[in-house]
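Before a computer can learn anything about folding, someone has to put a protein's shape into writing. The outcome of that step, for a single protein, is printed below:
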Amino acid sequence: MEANVIVDLLTEEEKKTINTALNTIKAIVDAKLPDLNADKRGYYGSVNEKNKLFINKAREIKTINPQLAPLEVDWVEYEKDYNARMFYESVLLLAKGVISRLESAKMMHDYDNYNDSLVLYRYIDFKRRSDTPGAEASYNALKEFFTRARQTEKK
């Protein structure tokens, strides 16, 4: 068992800055962007890599040969959609990187807490067996998290 695999390197000021920034971002996103339910997500779907290449090629052709662009398409809106999706994709990549690091740090802190809690549990068990006052109740409070499987009768 590794002892203390991570220390909290963020200062309280840095934590406050992160929370403030995320709350600001969330407020903007909540006010301006949709939150699709499962049915709508299924309806609109997700554009796979091949279709992204198709979109890029169509945009390139339209730019090089504007005379081939159908009048039925609002090309100003097309560009706005394209630029918006590129922005969202870059923000998502950035956010996924941040999320991965936050999840990794949390996972390591959880690991530390769990292993230190096991050390406490074993120590309280030792103190309980030494008849230390209060140890029995503390041991019983922690013991409930370690249920043993009932043995079945052998026939």
Notes: The mean pLDDT is 94.
